[in-house]
Design goal:
Elements: E1 12-14, H1 21-30, E2 34-36, H2 38-55, H3 81-92, E3 96-99, H4 102-117, H5 125-137, E4 140-141, E5 144-146, H6 155-165, E6 170-172, E7 178-180, H7 181-187, H8 199-202, H9 208-238, H10 248-252, H11 257-270, H12 274-277, H13 292-295, H14 297-319, E8 327-328, E9 334-335, H15 343-371, H16 394-410, H17 432-463, H18 471-483, H19 494-506, H20 509-518
Helix pairs in contact: 1-4, 1-9, 3-6, 4-5, 4-9, 9-11, 9-14, 9-15, 9-17, 11-14, 14-15, 15-16, 15-17, 16-17, 17-18, 17-19, 18-20
């Protein structure tokens, strides 16, 4: 993967306040540059002075002059402390499996750097600067899929990042080439760091991996729930449903904010629909009410929105946190604590996986109604050109169903599991990293399910001609066609059309076209 050209993206300066989720996405996904504000460097220097003052104290201080975890009772002499930090990072860089995505590693490194910039960790400025330098040079440590229990921080993933800062292990360079870390650092003009007291520990003791994946997920889900509203509007329209149930006064009787927002989107997307106007007369439409998957779209989509809002509030509190153990307090004490436990983040990652599964489930049900001649109100079986000779979109729904079934399994919470570790010192863990990994897979599945609903609804709206859809839904259909997704006709190789629809959802093309048409 080529390094993203970040020249047009505003740089992110750390130490001027908590990061925003937009800044994390800009660095992780778009390659924005990072820097350390003067106040951050001063805070880093001040906390480092505390660590150095305590380094010669005959009283043991965890992480400065002791071992770690179940080995914390051993006092480490001064001459062995550099080796202590190297050994910590090397031994904890114990991940296994395939490398995780570049954007996840970059988010994780940025969030750890953000904690360093608070001045609560006791690292030296050179250690913070190597992380900034690696991010700006597009050097991405190879972090493995498995290894974090989500407690004592995302230990193994963060250790692989710290290992690269030492000039050990492997990285992907700015061009995506996998190389030894020392070579990539040298070519970027960066010097590997030799960690002093506490520094290795400070780099691996945080929730940065799971938080980074949460922030990326929230960014994607905000777009996907809007796109799901659009898909639902196209399905209601294509199945000759009614928009009367989306009226603001009806929604206000149950004042959930997400529900109100989704209903407002549905009303906007369906405004001025010729198809809906054709059957508003009670004499021409005898249906009293639509199926739940159509009628209850605001309630389900709205609950997803409210879950996203709750997860966002947790993410914002986590972004404002300084997570390390031990931590340098505001009055210069070095104190052990439990703030590294990933429960707050792990819970909302699991909540979101449940919401994602249900949003995909209702989308698949709307798609299925289009294909059943007994329920699609005058459309051809499976929207096929010549039913019997052609199968139409029959198997596209199978693909949706397979994904939805997978999403239901992924909705099983990871955060209710716990496996004791470190000789029972770390006897309750969050599994937040695992929750984040499965949420990423779930979001990919949701994107595919919603894309297939859009593809199906677009074909149905074409088949309703000469009746004209709403300006917004017509723009969505046109955007799909311009993207290369074919309209009605004899059977074609279907997988490429689905892939194109997925891409048009992922890059926002369809949603933006519909929004533009609404003015």
């Amino acid at each position: 993967m080529a390094h993203v050209n970040s020249l047009a993206i505003d740089p992110v300066e750390l130490g001027t306040g908590p990061l925003t989720d937009e800044q994390v996405v800009a660095v992780a996904r778009d390659g924005a540059q990072v820097g350390l504000a003067p106040d951050a460097l001063s805070a880093i220097d001040a906390s480092r002075a505390v660590v150095e003052r305590l380094a010669d104290d005959p009283i043991a201080h965890y992480g400065i002059s002791t071992g770690f975890g179940a080995l914390a009772t051993r006092h480490i002499p001064v001459q062995a402390r550099e080796q202590l930090q190297r050994s910590l990072v090397r031994s904890h860089a114990a991940g296994s499996g395939e490398p995780v995505e570049r954007e996840v590693v970059r988010a994780m490194m940025l969030l750890r750097l953000s904690t360093m910039a608070t001045g609560r960790t006791g690292v030296r400025r050179t250690t913070a600067e190597i992380y900034a330098g690696m991010l700006n040079a597009g050097i991405t440590p190879v972090v493995r899929e498995f290894g974090s229990l989500g407690c004592s921080g995302d230990l193994a993933p963060l250790s692989h990042c710290a290992l690269a800062a030492m000039g050990e292990g492997e990285v992907h360079d700015a061009d995506g080439v996998r190389r030894p870390a020392d070579e990539a650092l040298r070519d970027a003009g960066l010097e590997p760091v030799t960690f002093g007291e506490k520094e290795g520990l400070a780099l691996i003791n945080g929730t940065d991996g799971m938080l980074g994946m949460l922030l990326l997920a929230l960014h994607d889900l905000r777009q996907l729930v809007d796109t799901a509203d659009l898909a639902a509007a196209m399905s209601v329209e294509g199945q000759l449903g009614t928009d009367a149930v989306f009226a603001a006064d009806l929604q206000a009787l149950r004042p959930h904010p997400g529900q109100a927002e989704s209903a407002a989107n549905l009303r906007t997307f369906l405004a001025e629909s010729g198809i809906m106007a054709s059957h508003r007369d009670p004499a021409s439409c005898t249906r009293v009410q639509d199926a739940y998957s159509l009628r209850c779209a605001p309630q389900v989509h709205g609950a997803v929105r409210d879950t996203i809002a709750h997860a966002q509030s947790v993410a914002e509190r986590e972004l404002a946190s300084a997570i390390d153990n031990p931590v340098i307090t505001l009055d210069d004490r070095v104190e052990s604590n439990g703030n590294f436990h990933g429960a707050p983040v792990g819970y909302v990652l699991d909540f979101l996986a449940i919401a994602v599964a249900d949003l995909a489930s209702i989308s698949e049900r709307r798609t299925d109604r289009f294909l059943d001649v007994a329920r699609n109100h005058g459309l051809r079986p499976f929207l096929a050109d010549d039913p019997g000779v052609d199968s139409g979109l029959m198997i596209a729904q199978y693909t949706q169903a397979a994904i939805v079934s997978d999403l239901k399994r992924l909705a099983a919470p990871a955060s209710v599991d716990s496996i004791p570790s470190s000789a029972m010192q770390e006897d309750h863990v969050s599994m937040g990293w695992s929750a984040a990994r499965k949420l990423r897979r779930a979001i990919d599945g949701l994107r595919r399910v919603v894309a297939i609903e859009l593809l199906t609804a677009a074909r149905a709206l074409d088949l309703r001609a000469p009746l004209q859809p709403a300006p917004a839904t017509a723009a969505a259909v046109a955007a799909l066609r311009e993207y290369g997704v074919p309209g009605p006709g004899p059977d074609r190789y279907l997988a490429p059309a689905i892939d194109l629809a997925v891409s048009a959802v992922a890059d926002g093309t369809v949603l933006e076209a519909a929004k533009k048409a609404t003015g």
